[in-house]
Amino acid sequence: xxxxxxxxxxxxxxQVRVGVVATGLTVAALGVSYFGLERAPFHRxxxxxxxxxxxxxGACIAVLPWARLFETTGMRFLYVWSVPxxxxxxxxxxxxxxxxxxxxxxxxLTTFFFVASYPPIAQLALLIFTAASYTAVMILTGxxxxxxxxxxxxxxxxxxxxxxxxxxKELLDRVQSEAAARQEADERAAFMSGVVKAGRDMTxxxxxxxxxxxxxxxxLGFGDAxxxxxxxxxxxxxxxxxxxxxxxxxxxxxxxxxxVIDLVVAQGEGPGISAxxxxxxxxxxxxxxxVNARPKGLGLGLAFATSALELHGAVLEVESAEGRxxxxxFRLSPLGAxxxxxxxxxxxxxxx
Length: 352
Description:
This protein is of the alpha+beta class. The protein contains nine helices and five strands; from the N terminus they run ααααααααβββαββ.
């Protein structure tokens, strides 16, 4: 029953506006119906006081800086608003006949509002408070209804809370699903824009190609990347150009005595790749991760990258752990005298 997650700020702000309007309409309707049309006896002063307090409270609620309150205190002020509303309704019920009062129906308004706005634990607490308040009114006004009628009325409130909670959860899930789809579309558009920009900016000028490549890697979403020159045996390595965490790995160098250029890119925060999926990276159409949570795709990106590296005599090295991000690297050897890349038959990952 109810919302599984705290609603978004725009959703909560709309709920506040709706609550204020509903309060104003209710006060106006009760004022007209009881003080203009009602002929049966009731406690006129008591109900008038309740309506004045409700109107003043609604006006105060309308001018509160709700955006700042939600950002600094969460939903506490909404809870504070709901409790006095329930208390005022209880006083209105007492002033208009207690168990015989039709204003019991006002409890359905507050119940629907807090079920549509609050997380489950708050819904349950306010529902219990509503039942306790109405029961207290029955006791204090002489208990003009039977115990069975009281249980029936409170049961109706509970069923209403269940139905409203289900519908609001379905609606919120739909909104969040559409927001996630929109975010994914924006990310894909940004990714394609980065690819296009990288292709447009790419150059064969030896003095710029490394910088342009690193900028392209950053545009694809990797926060850290470096070109590293090193000996084949790994005994000597120096950073040629870097971004992010690799900036402190050492001074820039273009020593021609070093044998290999190594590109390393890392994503420090991310879902990571499970150990069960790692052996299959690079296989065409393979897509790991949770089938319900992973982004859309065909499973061809790493397959193309792996094939391109193999044509250059290189292999893609992947280090990853779930929840800790991923690290991708490959090494390119200098061209031989014939102008061709050396053949490297080594395969790191088994291809499906």
